[in-house]
Amino acid sequence: MYEPDMHEKHKIVFFTFYLVFIIAMFLLVAHIAEPAVEIDHKEAHHQAVLSEILFLESTHGKNLHGEHGEYGVAQFKYESFEWLKGKANMPWLEWTDHGDQVALLDWCLRNGYRSHWTTAERAEINVLTRKYLPPKAIK
Q1: Domain 41-137 falls in which CATH fold?
Q2: What pTM was estimated for this model as a whole?
Q3: Which of 26, 108, 120, 137 has its CA 20 to 30 A from that of 7?
Q4: pLDDT tens column, 39-66
Q5: How far apart are CA 74 and CA 64, in angstroms?
């Protein structure tokens, strides 16, 4: 039976460690090279505009009563809220619930009802320019 000498044993051990090292490096590089989570810029922009509308309408809930019967963080009139929740097929929403107002505003912005908020255009510009523009700056 063949018995490898000490020099050959060292070669085998070295080769084994070298092979393990190469496999470990390959796995590490494969892990590092995984594609980064793709940022959905369209969704991020939508959320920024939504947040800006809430700020412009009610300062995120600090001014809940509007001048013409509007109420809540999104400043819905009762009749408009009821009409839009019917359009959205969300009959469970409540006009006085701030979370429901945000959910309905989100749906409205995604489904072509943006023009129902006079602050929508200014919110869009504020998000795009990242600065405040006074109301008279928009025609």
Answers
A1: Lysozyme (1.10.530)
A2: 0.66
A3: 26
A4: 677 888 888 899 999 999 888 677 688 8
A5: 8
Look at residue 71 and give its three-state secondary structure: strand
Q: Write the single-letter amino acid at 83.
A: W
Q: pLDDT for 10-46, tens place per residue?
A: 777 777 777 777 777 777 666 665 555 566 778 888 8
- Per the DSSP assignment, residues forming a β-bridge with 65 are 71
Averaged pLDDT, 90-105: 94
Q: Kindly give, in sequence order, each residue whose CB lies less than 8 Å from that of residue 77, ignoring residues fewer than 6 positions away.
A: 66, 68, 69, 70, 71
Measured CA to CA, the distance from residue 4 to residue 46 in angstroms comes to 70
CA distance 108 to 112: 6
Assigned token pair, 88: 């959205």
- In eight-state DSSP terms, residue 121 is H
Residue in 98, 63, 61 with CA at minimum distance from that of residue 81: 98
Torsion of CA 72, 77, 80, 101, to 10 degrees: 0
Q: Answer positive or negative: Cα dihedral of 104, 106, 108, 114.
A: positive
